Amino acid sequence: MKRIISMVFACLMLTSTAFAQEPLIVAHDTNFKPFEFKNTDGNYTGFDIELWAALAKKAGLNYKFQPMDFNGIVPGLQTNQIDAGIAGMTITPARAKVISFSDPYYNSGVQMIVMADRDDISSINDLEGKIISTKLGTSSETFAKSFGKAEVKLYPNNDAMFMELISGGADAVIFDLPVVQDFASTVGKGRVKLAGPLYEGQAYGIGFPKGSALVEKVNKALAEMKADGSYDELYMKWFKTAPRK
Asked: Looking at the predicted structure, is the pLDDT value of residue 202 above 60?
C-alpha cells in the first residue's frame, strides 16, 4: 500500500511540475513598428518583444509569443486564451473594466501625418469634410471619430492605413506618435510629414486577464528595469532618445 501511495504521489508531483512549466502565451501585434514587426530574417523583433523578454527573465517566467491581430488581444485575455498581451496597448477606462494592466511602460500620444506637399492641414480642425485613415480597434480610432467632422476609414493593420494616405484615398493618418514617426523617417521619408501638435497623452500597458497574479510580478520586474537603467538602454536603442516622462 505504501508503495502504491508513493507511486501515486510521484505521479501527482510530475503532473504538477509539468503544469507549472507550461509556457505562458504572450500575444503581440503582427505589425506595429517599432514595437513589434518582422525583421529581414522573418523573426519578430521590436521594443515590445525585447522588453517582454527582459521582464520575463527578471520575473522567471516561461513563455512563448503568439502574434495576432490587435483587435483579438483583449477578447483573448477576457477568455483566458492568452496569458498576457504586449502590443502598444493604450490603458483606457473601457479596457481596464475587462482586463488588468501593468504599470505604464511607454508614454505616447496621437499624431497626424499628411503628404509632404500638403500645406492646408496643420491641425485636426483642418480635416473638416476630409478623410482620416487609422487602425481598427485602437484609441486612435476613438479619437478620430470623436472629431465628428471627417470621414474615418479603418484598416486592420498599419501598412494598409499608411497606403491609403500614399495612394490619395485619405487626407491624413491619425495614429500613435512612435509609429507615424517611424513611418515618416523610413518608408514615407520625403513623401509624408508630421502635421499639427501631439494630441491626447497616452500610456501603454501590458494586458492580462482580470485579476491575474502576473501583474504584480511584471510590475516588480519593470520597476527593477527602470531602477537599474536597463529600461532606458532599451528605450534608447529603439527610439534614439531618452524616455518621455
From this structure: yes
3-state helix, strand, coil in the chain (%, to 5): 40, 25, 30
pLDDT in tens, 18-43: 344 699 999 999 989 899 999 999 99
pLDDT tens track for 110-134: 999 999 999 999 999 999 999 999 9
- Residue 158 CA to residue 133 CA, distance in Å, equals 10
User: Cell for 188?
Assistant: 514615407
User: Facing residues of 110 across strands?
Assistant: 176, 199
Q: How far apart are CA 71 and CA 65, in angstroms?
A: 17
- 146: exposed, middle or buried (Cβ count in 10 Å: 0-12, 13-18, 19+): exposed
User: DSSP alpha helices (H): ranges in the chain?
Assistant: 2-20, 47-59, 73-78, 93-98, 139-147, 158-166, 177-185, 214-228, 230-239
Give the model's pLDDT for residue 240. 81
Rounded Cα–Cα distance for residues 233 and 141 (Å): 31
How many residues belong to the chain? 245
Report the side by side order of strands in the sheet with 84-85.
Answer: 63-67, 24-28, 84-85, 207-209, 99-101
User: Model's pTM, two decimal places?
Assistant: 0.76
